Amino acid sequence: MAVPVVDPSLNSLTDADPAEAESTRRPRRRPARADLLALGAYVLLGVFVCLNYWGDVTGRVSSHLPTDHSWFEWLFAHGAYSVRHLENPLFTARQNAPDGVNMMANTSLLGVTLPLAPLTMLLGPQVMYALYLGAALAATAGTGYWMLSRHLVRSRAAAFVGGAFLGFAPGIIHHANGQPNFVSNFLLPLIVVRVLSLGEPGRWRRNGLVLGALVAYQIFINEEMLLLTALACLVIVLAYAVQRPRATRAAAGTFLAGLGVAGGLALVLTAYPIWFQFNGPQSYRGLQGGVFHNWGEDLVAFVTFARDTWAGDPAVEKTIGLTEQNTWFGWPLVLLSVVALVLLVRRSLATRIVAVLIVVFSVAAIGPWVRFNGVETGVRGPWSYVSDDLPLVEMMMPTRLTLVVAAAVGVLLALTWDAAHRQGRPVADPPRVPAQRTAEAATSAERAEPAAPAAARRRWLRPVGYAAVALAVLPLFPRPLPAQQIDPPPHFISAGGWRPYVPAGRTLVPVPIPSNVHGLPTLRWSALTGQEFPVPGGYFIGPNELGEGVFGAPNRPTSSLIYSTMDSGLVPALTDENRRQAVEDLRFWRASVVVLGAHPREAVLRELVTALIGPPQRVDDVWVWDVRTLVG
User: Fold this and answer.
1) Which end of the chain is more exposed for a tag (fewer CB within 10 A), N or C?
2) Which helix H or strand E contains 617, and what residues bound it?
3) pTM score over 0.85
């Protein structure tokens, strides 16, 4: 007879026999070989996913999100520059000169770029980007494996399958196309374990301190994923409390004490950076127009194969519409999940909590309006009742709530494999409490036949369960991330020919000026030279005149003129006012030199800039306008 475990720790999420729960809580010493093989497989898979970058690591970027890819290369260079020059990493003037960029108010990955700064100096930001991307995927799978194998399942194979999904789920692979912050989830399984361990008696200080340190570190990796994890933990705790009220009441004091310690330590460690994020220079309040608020998950996306999986088809995006593909599980995995929940939900508390997570976050991710196969149905979604003026909520993208669903599905896969693993294995008789012995003495019917024959009859369920999980996840095996070739920076830039033209305190103005739409190659000039010269414009989020967050620097008249000329391919009729404004803009940017390298619109851009500020010089492989005497 199974007895629910009354234990305020993570291990109480399984309705196991006491002996079995004790085995999960203190696993028998097993060979480290299984753990090493799992980690090795994850590393190989991480290398495989990044394979197209390694073919030409200095000349390729993501073909899906090339600008984001370049931004994160720039971030690695920022970390190295901050360490090398001992500058405040929370702010930089090397982009968006002269106003600069608030790095805490942007996705800055400081928790990664700063400790890896020595490697970036040695290898360069391009190599560092590709190296870190694969490592982050593998590390997330590895900590997921550790959490599952040490706390939720007994089968190492089950933990391997679940960990692989946590690290390489379709939504995670989609974000790997230029957004390594969303694949850097290796601390999240550790945070969940610490949260669910806060109720352990006698360990609330230690658990609280560890949790506080993990939370503080995660803030410098990805605050949005930390927020999603906090929401998931809240749902887990509430679901546990409803189903285990007595254990919850017994552990509440210890849990809250540990939570207080964690919150206090995290606040002490991050108080100034968080203040800087919301009150420092170039901070902002919300995004203009609440651009993320309306982006929900299409219902058909749940049963569609993601683009970057072996079963995926890029053409599907034309039907559903371009989304972040945070779910895109495909029919087999959705069907398996439904069947697994039906079969396991009555016997496993962990499965019941997983079911709650899947339902709550799937519904919430629909967004303000229900979309079906790319068509907005007119049916209100849950997000329509949430104000887009609420702090933090205004910055949330509803579709990303399904990243919690993906994590829950990964845990469900591990639980399903583990349940199949236990089929056909005799279960040891649990230790019996006195009340049980009395009842058995009074009723001979309690002395059932040995479990082994019944277990043998169920032995066929094991291969069926294994096959079902394999058939559901194999179509989701990731493809190598697609990459595209990108031109290297001009020799004038990479060889340092710019140095005589850019004294301290002045900027190099590349044409086109970097922005979130134009000037991707010129943004990389800054990253690939170690940010030794500042540039105007850039790719970031900063405040507009109303203090709302907008992408990129507000266009000045000259940058707008450059962009419109690029789009039309024709130089417009220019006036003296255009020329006066060009000089004024160069003075605002503190420019000392304007540089135009090879570009599809090189001829028309050279004609435009020449008409604005005079003839250039050909230096090495670029056109150079020395404007120091012009702007003073």
Assistant:
1) C
2) strand 617-619
3) yes
CA separation for the pair 69, 629 (Å, rounded): 37
Does the N-terminal peptide bond of residue 600 adopt cis geometry, omega within 30 degrees of 0? no
Residue 575 has, within 13 A of its CA and on its CB side, a CA count of: 4
Task: Return d(Cα 382, Cα 400) in angstroms, integer.
Answer: 14
Span 476-522, pLDDT tens digits: 999 999 999 998 999 999 999 999 999 999 999 999 999 888 767 88
For the cut 70, the answer to whether the pLDDT of residue 290 exceeds it is: no
Q: What is the pLDDT of residues 124-145, one digit of tens each?
A: 999 999 999 999 999 999 999 9
How many CB atoms sit inside 10 A of residue 517's CB? Answer: 14
Using one digit for the tens of pLDDT, what is the confidence trace for 439-475? 333 333 333 344 455 555 567 788 999 999 999 999 9
Q: Distance between CA atoms of 526 and 537, rounded to whole angstroms?
A: 12
* Buried b or exposed e, range 6-37, using 16+ CB within 10 angstroms: ebbbbbbbbbbbbebbbebbeeeeeeeeebee
- How far apart CA 459 and CA 466 sit, in angstroms, is 12
What residues contact residue 221 under an 8 Å CB cut-off, 6+ apart? 109, 111, 112, 181, 184, 187
What spatial distance separates the first Cα and last Cα of the chain, rounded to whole Å? 88
Q: How far apart are CA 237 and CA 248, in angstroms?
A: 9
* C-alpha distances in Å from residue 409, one per residue of 187, 218, 331, 404, 423: 18, 23, 14, 9, 21
Residues contacting residue 134 through CB under 8 Å, at least 6 positions apart? 43, 46, 47, 49, 50
